Amino acid sequence: MSSSTILFGVEAGIARLTFNRPERLNSFNVEMHTAVRAALAELPGSGARVLVLTGAGRGFCAGQDLADRAVAPSDAPVDLGESIERYYKPLVLALQGLAMPVIAAVNGVAAGAGANIALACDLVIAARSASFVQAFSKIGLVPDSGGTWFLPRLVGPARALGLTLLGEKLSAEQAAEWGLIWRCVEDAELAPSVDTLARQLAAAPTLGLAATKRALQASWNHSLAEQLDWEQSAQRALGRTADYVEGVSAFMAKRTPVFKGQ
Fold first, then answer.
1. Residues 85-143: pLDDT tens digits?
2. CA nearest 173: which of 162, 182, 164, 184?
3. 243: buried, middle or exposed (CB in 10 Å: 19+, 13-18, 0-12)?
4. At what angle do helices 206-219 and 242-253 cross, to 10 degrees?
5. CB–CB of 154/179 below 8 Å?
6. Who's near 216: CB < 8 A, 6+ residues apart?
7. Is 105 helix (H, G, I), strand (E, B) or coil?
8. DSSP class of residue 86?
9. What is the DSSP letter of 125?
10. Which string of b and e fits 12-28 if b means at least 16 CB within 10 Å?
11. What is the pTM assigned to this prediction?
12. What are the tens digits of pLDDT across the range 23-52?
């Protein structure tokens, strides 16, 4: 499925969703929100075992298109909270809730909501020329799309405050050094690096990866004892899967496992 605002397809277990408004640095309008939501809804049952999210042209995503009629200032007050409730909150929760790994391939600037949508993905790989900008303070807004939740957890409160209050550009290299993202690679290596990682994850035991993702998310709200109970429950369920049997059998036979995501 593709539209005028995104490109989307699934092949060999890898789903690829590309924001496709390069003339607007892939900023969101209502049409793009609608297309992205429809694409994500297609993933269950599609055979996808990993999702790669990226942008067309020279940017990943510049956040909200301020010229979009749904949010552009007018004579009447604009309810930006409604836009978050209707579009950005469901998008971030959908990315976090997917039962598969999500890779953000940040090929250029990721600004505003675009930066935080990247951080909502599980693994962020950025080209060295890419950058992350919490641009909200420049227009009198608070970081949204989960920015106030992700940033302090990833880089700590001091750096989170600096990034959000000052709105300064953070290079991909610095973002990797701070632990904001998984890896920074040379521009020419972004596509092959992402392809290698996507193929690796598509061949991995999907149910185990999805459970690991849920476990790490749940840990923020659990005591150690509660998390140990969570792990116990997850291991009990995963121990009954075909992928666990295959993994152990392959280990004992000293061969490469063939996981089916079951």
1. 999 999 999 999 999 999 999 999 999 999 999 999 999 999 999 999 999 999 999 99
2. 184
3. buried
4. 110
5. yes
6. none
7. strand
8. I
9. E
10. ebbbbbbbbbeebbbbb
11. 0.93
12. 999 999 999 999 999 999 999 999 999 999
